[in-house]
Give the backbone structure.
Amino acid sequence: MNRILYWFRNDLRLHDNEGFVRALENADQVLPVFVFDPRWFTPHPRLGISKMHVFRANFLLESVADLRQSLQRKGADLIVRVGNPANVLAEIAVEIDASAVYTSKEITQEETDVESKLSTKLKPLNIDLKLFWMSTLYHVRDLPFEISRLPDVFTQFRNKIEKSAEIRPVFETPKTIRLAPDVLPGEMPTLTTLGFDEQNQILALQPDSRRSVPFKGGETTALDRLDRYLWQTDLIATYKETRNGLLGEDYSSKFSAWLAHGCLSPRQIYTELKRYESERVRNESTYWLVFELLWRDFFRFVALRYGTRIFKSSGIKHDLSKKYQHDEDLFLKWANGQTGIPFIDANMREMNTTGFMSNRGRQNVSSFLVKDLDIDWTWGAAYFESRLIDYDPCSNWGNWNYVAGVGNDPRQNGGSQPRYFNIYSQATRYDEQGDYVKHWLPELAQVPGSLVHLVSNLSLAQQEAYGVRLGIDYPLPVIDPTKWVF
Ligand SMILES: Cc1cc2nc3c(=O)[nH]c(=O)nc-3n(C[C@H](O)[C@H](O)[C@H](O)COP(=O)(O)OP(=O)(O)OC[C@H]3O[C@@H](n4cnc5c(N)ncnc54)[C@H](O)[C@@H]3O)c2cc1C
């Protein structure tokens, strides 16, 4: 009897899951396992914030529970454990007399460290470890260049890949699963057992009514969202025009959280997009979603090429000359949405309250932290890591490298594409009437839209008229915002 243990990681789905399909093909019986690693919830050594805050933890719990239900509907189950994955998996593999452990290939250090430890444990037991590359639109083996020759400029990457590589078809969802018997399924952990206090649990379980998307983890909701964004609403057909929005559910796809946890495969999105293009409409917007998914691929390949550099202040460029401030008070004002710059504060408060922030918001708050406050960008990236539901090591740290000017694009930072954001220009362009900032900063609700982005300039009489006292109801600005205006 040939048995394979399938270790689910950031591939929490049954559709387009090559590793799982191969396990079913190659074994008489398969044992699907998920392991919650307590190290995911440990605090950042300097900042004290947990690596995974409650929003993502809750999304992960929902995703794993959904996967378990889907497997149960197919006559199988998902074995759930809490512990060090290398130890737990090796033990179970021995228990079921597995010939191999199959799993998805990850890219970044903490994840590959676990793979190495597991491999070291399995080797003397004569159990194979087989890793499947499954997270990108283009398979790493189909790249038309060696990874060491990955173009540094995104456009060159895109041109090469679009010209010379093909996207592989999706793998079918398995119909039946032959489960290895006699292993206790194990209880799902809860937010309490994962260490979240009541106040944090309320944040996740009684979500703020102002949030734009009711994110629910799992493949089921991921496929619903895909269906909704394309077929039910045709929102995809106007994506290019709406994607820079700030308010509401529909200005962008909101696929990111499901993609990050692997509840949704990028190739599944692509397949549905192609079908949509042939059955409904093909235009710049339908292409633009693929374009954005290519950015996601790009950052994965960048992480593969540059390894741990993406996590260091000196970045991909290995620029040791730049010295950053390590001002914790100022950093906390940024993190808590208390800078006195409404566009920054509204975005940070949205993320703190919901676990999500738009792409436009992320570009602005990151630029502000690095370029205006001069604070170590790795602090900002660590904060995003903690708070975002869609946190993905490659996309997060890769984007932060770019914003901080330590990425691999030689044209950035003083070149033809300086990445400095004039926050006032951005705010007045993308939130012309101030609706977004007022949504998240109710203390500014009565300030006219034309004045709200420069609220620190209000006279005492205006403050009284609009019901806001600067320095009391809303903070004084941490930097002089008039530099953006005059
Ligand atoms: C500083 C910073 C940090 C970021 N951190 C993350 C992160 O941890 N996880 C994450 O998924 N995205 C991250 N992004 C990228 C982007 O902001 C989000 O993917 C996007 O806002 C998610 O919303 P959406 O799914 O509606 O995006 P859409 O606009 O609908 O885009 C569709 C998909 O394309 C991909 N995508 C779009 N833009 C980017 C980009 N710039 N880089 C990589 N992929 C992209 C995402 O998978 C996204 O779901 C970050 C951007 C910045 C500037």
Summary: Residues 1-134 form a domain with the Rossmann fold fold (CATH 3.40.50.620).
